[in-house]
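Technical annex, item 7. During the second reporting period the consortium partners agreed on a shared format for inverse folding records so that results from different sites could be compared directly. Each record opens with the tokenized structure and is followed by the designed sequence. A conforming record, contributed by the partner at site C, is shown below for reference.
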């Protein structure tokens, strides 16, 4: 379940961040002999948040007269499903099956575990290889490295996290390398081999063979829509790896009985948890009341929960230039500002794009302590059409990380 998966990750990040912050503050008034992460205790703490989610949701559904049926569903017709051998017919069906790890199509793929497996590790392996340079790999690498693992990220491209601003990504990469996380870039993985001491990830870079040894190999190379087992052909539903083809009301373009939301829908909106929740509400309303609602994906923030966090909302500088927009760029490395120095976080910066004519925010990009919280100020501004001057005039509590926002738009 998406909510449990997201909460699992954030709980792990929060605990590891607390330990990391204490380490960073050592010598600045914090003293200790040794500070370590107890992985077993950490996982038990995580389960105290996530284990109650599914029972709570099912009780809530039951109170509303909604029946929960457990089983694998497959379409048997335009508006019918088979589950556990029983056929279910409905006026409408909502597909909200999320995403699944992409097929790697390499020898030894069976040795690669999913990100869900990582979130349930009872003990932390000494050596971990993450395949792919996206959200999952960087978030888990930062957690595992700070908990004592030797971590490598193997990515086929020249630049990881390519949805984010490259200048801020460079700051994060420098911070990542200082954690002794090995960044194996421009390397195409060709196979995973089991050996006596664990596994060997093999790849090629510039025609040369690259090898990375690990005790655990984790899939972080993308998650397309999880649709393969649904037999959508039987329902006449058009789809591809990005999801079910839908109109602006999240209704299938080829079967008006079917709706889709979240990662299962090729809606063109960002594949983010808040958008999945919004699309679920919109699709449900349209199924019941008719097609009256759409999901506005503008101004939705996206965060890589590394330590420190990397956050963005709106357009990147490249996207704004490609659209021919006239804008100014406020960019600064803020590691010498009071807030980052007080938090002892050396990786800190921002880039804000402001339309020259309207003075509205086109995009905001942050890295640093509390970037995952501060980005919401810019999301609020973008969704409500606030100008840079209106943001600058806002009086924030001082000194807080939020009080730096006025200098980001000045």
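Designed sequence (site C submission):
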């Amino acid at each position: 379940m998406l909510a449990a998966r997201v909460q699992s990750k954030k709980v792990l990040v929060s605990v590891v961040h607390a330990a990391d912050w204490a380490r960073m503050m050592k010598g600045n008034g914090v003293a200790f002999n040794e500070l370590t992460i107890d992985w077993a205790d950490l996982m038990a703490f995580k389960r105290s948040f996530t284990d109650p989610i599914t029972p709570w949701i099912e009780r809530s559904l039951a109170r509303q007269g909604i029946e929960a049926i457990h089983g694998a569903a497959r379409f048997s017709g335009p508006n019918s499903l088979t589950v556990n051998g029983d056929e279910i017919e409905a006026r409408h069906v909502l597909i909200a099956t999320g995403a699944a790890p992409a097929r790697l199509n390499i020898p030894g793929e069976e040795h690669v575990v999913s990100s869900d497996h990582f979130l349930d590790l009872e003990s932390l392996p000494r050596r971990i290889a993450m395949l792919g340079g996206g959200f999952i790999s960087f978030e888990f690498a930062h957690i595992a490295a700070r908990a004592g693992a030797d971590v490598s990220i193997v990515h086929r491209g020249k630049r990881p996290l390519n949805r984010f601003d490259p200048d801020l990504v460079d700051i994060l990469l420098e911070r990542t390398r200082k954690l002794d996380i090995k960044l194996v870039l421009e390397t195409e993985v060709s196979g995973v081999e089991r050996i006596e001491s664990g596994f060997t990830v093999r790849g090629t870079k510039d025609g040369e063979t690259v090898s990375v040894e690990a005790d655990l190999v984790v899939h972080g190379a993308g998650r397309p829509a999880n649709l393969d087992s649904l037999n959508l052909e039987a329902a006449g539903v058009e789809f591809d790896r990005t999801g079910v083809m839908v109109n602006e009301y999240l209704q299938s373009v080829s079967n008006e009985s079917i709706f889709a939301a979240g990662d299962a829908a090729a809606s063109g909106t960002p594949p983010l948890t808040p958008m999945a929740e919004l699309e679920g509400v919109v699709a449900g309303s349209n199924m019941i009341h008719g097609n009256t609602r759409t999901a506005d994906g503008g101004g939705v923030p996206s965060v890589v929960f590394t330590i420190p966090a990397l956050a963005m909302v709106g357009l990147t500088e490249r996207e704004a230039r490609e659209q021919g927009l006239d804008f100014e760029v406020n960019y600064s490395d803020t590691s010498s500002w009071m807030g980052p120095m007080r938090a002892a976080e050396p990786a800190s910066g921002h880039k804000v794009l402001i339309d020259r004519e309207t003075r509205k925010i086109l995009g905001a990009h942050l890295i640093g302590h509390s970037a995952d919280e501060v980005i919401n100020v810019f999301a609020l501004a973008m969704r409500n059409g606030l100008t840079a001057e209106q943001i600058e005039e806002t009086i924030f509590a001082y000194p807080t990380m939020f009080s730096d926002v006025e200098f980001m738009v000045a």
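The chain has a mean pLDDT of 93. The CA atoms of residues 339 and 401 lie 6 Å apart. All partners now use this format for quarterly exchanges.
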